[in-house]
## 1
Amino acid sequence: MEHEKGSTLRDTLIALPGCEKVDMCFSCGTCVSRCPIQQKIEPAYNPRRLLKMIALNMQADSFSSITPYLCSACDLCFEACPQEIHISAILNGVKKLALEAGFSTPLNIAKVDNLTCVGCGFCEKVCPYQAITLKETNVPLRGKNLLIAEVDSGKCMACGACSAICRSNSIELQAREHSEEVIETMWSWLETTEMSAEK
Amino acid sequence: MAEQKPEDELRIGVYICHCGSNIAGVIDPAEVAEWATHLPGVVRATDTLYACADSGQTLIKEDIKKYNLNRVVVSACSVRMHETTFRAAVAEAGLNPFLMEMANIREQCTWAHGHDKEGALKKAKDLTASAIAKARFLNPLTMIKVPVTKRAMVIGGGVAGISAALDLADQGIETILVEKEPTIGGVMAQLNKTFPTMDCSI
Amino acid sequence: MVDAARHPKIDVRTFTNVERVEGYVGNFKVQLREKARHVLADRCNGCGECSKVCPIEVPNYFEMNLAPRKAAYVAMSQSVPLRYTIDENACIHCYKCVDACGALEAIDFSQEDKLIWEDIGSIVVATGFNHFDPSVIPEYGYSRYPNVITAMEMERLNNSAGPTTGNLIRPSDQKNPQRLAIINCVGSRDKRFNPWCSNFCCMYAIKNAVLLKQMNPTLEISIYYMDIRTPSKGYEEFYDRARGMGIRFIQGRPSLITEDPQTKNLFIHSEDITLGKISELEYDMVMLNQAAVPQPDVDSVSSVLNITQSPGGWFMEYHPKLRPVDSPTDGIFLAGACQGLKDIPSSVSSGLATASRAGRILHSDEWEIEPIIAQVWEDRCVMADGKICGVCARACPYGAIIIEEGKAASVTVAKCHGCGGCVAECPHNAITQMHFTDAQVFSQMRALLAENPQEKIFAFRCHWCSYGGADLAGTSHFDYSANERGIRVMCSARMDPDFIYEAFRLGAGAVLYSGCHPQDCHYITGQKVGATRADRLQKLFEKLEMTPGRFRIEWISAAEGDKYSRVINEMQKVIDAIPHEQLMTEIERLKPEMEKRARRMYETPGMDKAVTYSDAMVKAINTKEVKNGA
């Protein structure tokens, strides 16, 4: 554990939209116990602890934490947070800063093969995180330029939806182990909770 | 009629309070005092560490006699804080208490403009000048005396209201205790034991 | 309780509301509404025969609706006074109670609400607090899960005088629970509901845990908490005692309660933050330690008594440290939780403190009030010339101005509260206010706008609210533009249109017209007089094509320091957005109009001297600045 001086992380982060309330966390743990990811996917995932690390300007620890990359922005924690902290926005902010600082995502994110991609755009439509956009190349095709898919490494959550839908097998994505089982567990967990029953 | 001020020469004393570092940490009270000496009617202007302290009040009282002051301006805190203090002080020195005027250079200046020391200094000067200007036209007034009905009313019959009513009544004051519910007792009557001594609530 | 009822000097009026409060320190007039009990208080002996025969049962509020009461009822057996009440809304008029009462003849169905006026010297407000309803928090399932109960329900369930005579049972199956959880801060320290700490709940949770553990040592009790706050004497020791009894303290705020539909047992999901581990533990029963909130009728009480509210709905004290039990109105004091949440020892202390503060007044034969009243210049009043006017009398909230044909208006000193509304309203400038004369305010304005007036934000603030709001902005160190220059008058009603014209004539960059919110006004309807006038001025400035925002109306309470600071900063932005040349042209263009409109002020007595003095003052300020700048 380190305590860095110069208060860069907290100051930079607090200026990002949605991250204004990062100091307000009083470590009650509501977000962690509310989170489906912590319980079913990754026990090391802990937004409460990340917020504490930000407050203490533990930059290296924050940037190498897996927490920012796993958040799916479901915002169950935001609804339950007594301090009204938009936790997913803060996690997203940390992720952005980490990537800018040269840290790479620990997730196996989607990679597009530029040589085989035909630019059909199915992947763009199915991506739940708006991580894929079609980019124009200078290769002419039927009077226009060829489009190919591009992945925003900051947004991709490595869910594999794009890879499954791709008709030219141009997206390589080694999904996390037991991902289907995990997704199934998540669904059944969600169904047993009160909140989903109400919805 | 309203305009009954003494027509003798105007002699205003001005006191700029440091309030420790509350004011002096942002502006220089001595500079404001020096500046105030140039304003019309001011015969004495000085800074003081704590105007409200005994020493500050003594200074004002002695100056009233020494300089024959007939108006006093105190640039310090809010009138909600110390107006009564300074009115009493000038009254002790034989001046009508309504011939004292305050300028609020703490709550409404140095505390609110810590980020802008130059602006705060200008404002402190202006507020002091404004108080001096008002002081010029102050009239001696006497407090109005009103009769007192010796009865109290306590609204709410919970533990706080009952305590207040009993104490007033024990002082011999006739007290009406008003409660909107059919019984007094409030929340306290609904409790089992009470902490930390675990005694009965009723 | 019983002491209060027995005390010869205390007159207990239960089932009674306060309708109106008039007057001033030492001389209040309070109107009470004695609600119809349909029972004659002097005849009822509290025997309860009426209740026994009454066929109607409704939930008893006193038992948190966990037990019934009759339509002819006392809330509890120790009621003070022990007088029955017949609930109008529940009664079916079978009159069995009348027969049961028999020769006592204490029941009277013809009884109606009575309005009574009382003369009072000083008032203590002790209206208390209310309990937060946790059913609005969906994740805790209160009102959906039978075995999730509130703290107050627990209080009745473990009370020997309660509906179960102190036997703690689960509502779902009437069995004694073996595993009980208490959740703290339910609706408190939660910005979605109430941001404040409710003060006594930590101790309250510990008290209930200790009590229940003493009654049933095998009961497992866990308290979920964020922080345990035990700041008073003996409290930390009490917390120690609870830990020593084996009560479990789990740090971490539960995020969800789920229920087993068969057993009706409950699962609490939380992160134990000391271990950093998720826990999902099973309990038979859960007590929600709910927040304390202001009374639902707090708004109407504040407007009847003219007391301002702090954020959240607690009554505002005159000064948080130095005068914590005084309301801003002389002679009205605040006791107990209505001023801010207090536990029993603190409530008693504040109650006793108010008795001492009120005693100062009530033991005096006379009380002094500030002589800042209105006075009429008889030679300027047109009524004296036989003309019809009376504007001043209409503006007065207290009926203190007497109008008679052919005579100048006159002010009744004892009735005048010194708001200054009549002074500003008088179309002939025939009234002045002591200590806030036109000459005084004019000289202040000249001094404040002596240099670079176009840069200044000139703020008129009422003494009770907006001046307090500006104070709070400073106390809280909410920085705002140092170009603000303020003048204090007693009420927005005193903010004479002449002052506003004069401020713009002198070239002020912007002018703020600020006072209290309508319900907070210290002078009943003074704010309304001020607000109507401000709206009129706003329309005029629009017509004159003044840049929008240079004249601004804002109602800012003494509790709204943040708002004061924000408003001033916004006005600074308005000035900054106007190019200098354009602003100067606009000021010059409006000057003749402003001068024409403010002209009558110059005719009032004393103004000639004010002009001469102010000229000298402005000259002194400006020459001195040159010297400093050199």
## 2
Amino acid sequence: MANVVVVTSGKGGVGKTTTTAALGAALAQAGQTVAVVDFDVGLRNLDLVLGAERRVVFDLINVVQGAAKLQQALIRDKRIETLWLLPASQTRDKDALTDEGVARVIDELRQRFDWVLCDSPAGIERGAQLAMRHADQAVIVTNPEVSSVRDSDRIIGLLDAKTVRAERGERIAKHVLVTRFDPARASRGEMLGIADIVEILSLPLLGIIPESQEVLRASNLGTPVVLSNPASAPALAYTEAARRLEGEDLDIVIPAEKRGLFTKLFGRRAA
Amino acid sequence: MIWNWFKRRHSAPVARERLQILLAHERSTLGRSNLVAVLQDEILSVISRHVFIDPDSVQVKMDRGATISTLEIEIEIPNMVAPPLAVTY
């Protein structure tokens, strides 16, 4: 039976889609069968980040409305054969998604995959609520920045109120994933630290993704960062986060800043 | 001057404190239980039974430490002056 995970944040632009692609690829690389589902109807981007934008024929709305079968809409990744994408529609809007239709599609995905990762749209409205509705677990993507942390807190409230699990009185496992973390700035007191974020949101930490040029490079290439540069800091951090999602107990090391002589002398990053 | 430089550099503690106060308030108004916000409401209602105070004049802060936590309550009470009969602005 699959694990349904929603990747959510409230705030836009914090890295939900990047995270969905990277975690999905990492889980699939570990041999799990994974479906990544784009819930951002009208503004789909998971296809682009995964490099599958020219292979989209049918989408989530077609399947929800019964116009296409699930296997017609699922796109298999060309690099990892256990990774599949269910794209969002680019032309319709979120009102084309019905509660019953989404429930049926998620149910069908559960039977075919080990993991179903739902990439939530930004906001707290219907689209975001549908993405989280059937989740067993949630990954709350948070930047070390006040508006992102505040919006994460709102989303945590929604996860505890509006999901099927919450309505049944069951627990939904929630994890914080801090992205775009700059250890140098945090250590200088210019950026919220990991301890601050964890304490404020009172949730366990799934991982810390350091700010890195590799993330933009990966999306430029249409390749999840765990594949485009597996040895890079964000790739290693995502791979470890995926292992924690699978239940492994790995210590989290707060990324240390690499400082050369120049930066030590002048106290600023050359970048 | 050095103090100003220090304050300028260390904005993270300000972010942290602002978030803690804001979220304590938002969690209570959005239905999540929160001690600080509950305390703030109840203290306000007790005081205002006896003295007229502004709802924003009660500040409740809680700091969680490793072994003890501190609760800081600050209440501003306006000086008692008889209200004028007619107020003109």
